[in-house]
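[step 3/7] inverse_fold.run input=structure_tokens len=481
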């Protein structure tokens, strides 16, 4: 816990990170930030006041601190459904439309490009679709706030593990094996990509010179931002996208709160966001204010707010009755009741978690994912929503997504044993036994919190989880001794 005397300094550092990097460091993350800052003070041999002044003027230090609050785990063809939509629908349609218009320019953006796997995947798909690519003006703009991932991307060297989702066809065509464990991406792919280091939330907007971007990928980025920052960024994306331009977000992110800017378009088992023509009206502004409380106070809404508090009290009793049905395995009845409830209370994120869990118990994985994502869109800092989505991904064997969600859950509640426990499970399945043991030890340290309330799926397995953690501890203790 951050000492009271130091709380103001840590708050100031958090404010600098938010202003300079656009990364929201909420108060619940101050312990984590305090640990990082103390290490930097030792390394730099500075006092806290000196360090704050140093941080204000060092972009490199800002990048370093920011990197502790973002997750850079990625791979080629990571989100298969999104890339398949790009490959089989969006790019062919876009190419056909451009040819009909006599316009051979295509602009795509990878925002939060990390080490380059995303823009490189996009480039490979384009090269495959365009036999006469030399006659086209292709621009793939890749942006990341941290310089080190960009340096890795510019080298173009990747481990075999990073290529695990790629078909052998792509590996054979676009990579050269340089040793037993590494591959070098071809120059004809690298030359299509322009890498930039920068803050998406900086003024002026990094892409301000564009007004005709065709497709933007911004996956697993806005989850780190507060609502005001998201609103600003999404508005900027809207302004630079061409008519009917497309935006891809991560599974845990949604634009449900910006219906006047983008509409959801479903394709097979996934979806993307398509630009709407901007219509500034009182109705849209009212919609924004209603869905984003705090952005602007509307006195006329006070009565509605009071009424909503009464509903919240009723909801608690409703949820208790719902859990009883759940424990009796009356899943269809639970599903119907929740859907009816959501129809009257569409902003109660708890209900989407219960519905997602109900679908998970019935092995309706896509519905479970979708409702977890809606819960996250309504409450981005919900530990339960991220944890449940991580468990779903774990069950459907999507380890990268599971890792991302479980680590995000951990950022939202570092005191809960459940995120540590499921991260241990994940690493066990991936045969990383050292990490499994480390996470199990951390889970044991937090096992005093076993009585914390959580959603029913964990409630019903709580004793089994506790037993498994303690059995590990007893074996681990004997091994250490």
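[step 3/7] decode complete -> sequence:
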């Amino acid at each position: 816990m951050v000492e009271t005397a130091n709380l103001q300094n840590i708050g100031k550092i958090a404010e600098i990170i938010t202003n300079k990097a656009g990364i929201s460091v909420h108060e619940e993350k101050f312990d984590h930030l305090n640990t990082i800052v103390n290490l930097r003070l030792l390394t730099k041999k500075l006092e806290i006041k000196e360090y704050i002044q140093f941080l204000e003027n060092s972009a490199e230090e800002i990048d370093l601190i920011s990197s502790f609050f973002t997750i850079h785990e990625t791979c080629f063809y990571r989100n298969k459904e999104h890339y398949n939509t790009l490959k089989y629908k969006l790019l062919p349609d876009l190419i056909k439309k451009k040819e009909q218009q006599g316009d051979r320019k295509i602009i795509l953006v990878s925002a939060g490009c990390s080490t380059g796997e995303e823009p490189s995947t996009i480039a490979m798909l384009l090269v495959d679709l365009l036999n006469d690519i030399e006659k086209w003006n292709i621009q793939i703009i890749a942006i990341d706030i941290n310089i080190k991932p960009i340096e890795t991307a510019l080298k173009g060297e990747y481990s075999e593990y990073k290529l695990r989702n790629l078909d052998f066809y792509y590996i054979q065509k676009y990579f050269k094996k340089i040793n037993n464990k590494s591959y070098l991406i071809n120059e004809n792919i690298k030359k299509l990509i322009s890498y930039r280091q920068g803050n998406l939330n900086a003024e002026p907007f990094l892409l301000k010179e564009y007004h005709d971007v065709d497709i933007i990928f911004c996956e697993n980025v806005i989850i780190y931002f507060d609502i005001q920052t998201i609103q600003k960024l999404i508005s900027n994306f809207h302004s630079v996208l061409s008519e009917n331009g497309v935006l891809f977000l991560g599974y845990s992110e949604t634009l449900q709160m910006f219906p006047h800017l983008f509409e959801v378009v479903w394709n097979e088992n996934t979806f993307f966001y398509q630009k709407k023509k901007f219509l500034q009206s009182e109705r849209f502004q009212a919609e924004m204010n209603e869905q984003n409380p705090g952005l602007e106070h509307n006195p006329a809404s006070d009565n509605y707010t009071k009424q909503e508090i009464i509903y919240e009290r009723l909801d608690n009793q409703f949820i208790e009755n719902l859990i009883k049905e759940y424990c009796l395995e009356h899943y269809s009845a639970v599903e119907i009741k929740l859907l009816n409830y959501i129809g009257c209370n569409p902003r109660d994120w708890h209900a989407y978690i219960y519905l997602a869990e109900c679908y998970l118990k019935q092995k309706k994985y896509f519905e479970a994912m979708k409702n977890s994502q809606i819960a996250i869109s309504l409450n981005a800092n919900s530990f339960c929503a991220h944890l449940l989505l991580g468990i779903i991904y774990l069950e459907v064997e999507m380890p990268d997504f599971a890792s991302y969600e479980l680590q995000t859950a951990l950022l939202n509640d570092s005191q809960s044993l459940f995120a540590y426990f499921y991260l241990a499970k994940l690493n066990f399945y991936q045969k990383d036994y050292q990490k499994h043991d480390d996470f199990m030890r951390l889970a044991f340290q937090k096992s005093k919190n076993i009585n914390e309330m959580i959603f029913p799926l964990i409630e019903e397995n709580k004793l089994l989880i506790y037993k498994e953690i303690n059995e590990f501890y007893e074996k681990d203790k004997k091994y250490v001794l």
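[step 4/7] annotate
The chain has a mean pLDDT of 79.
DSSP finds 20 helices and ten strands in the chain.
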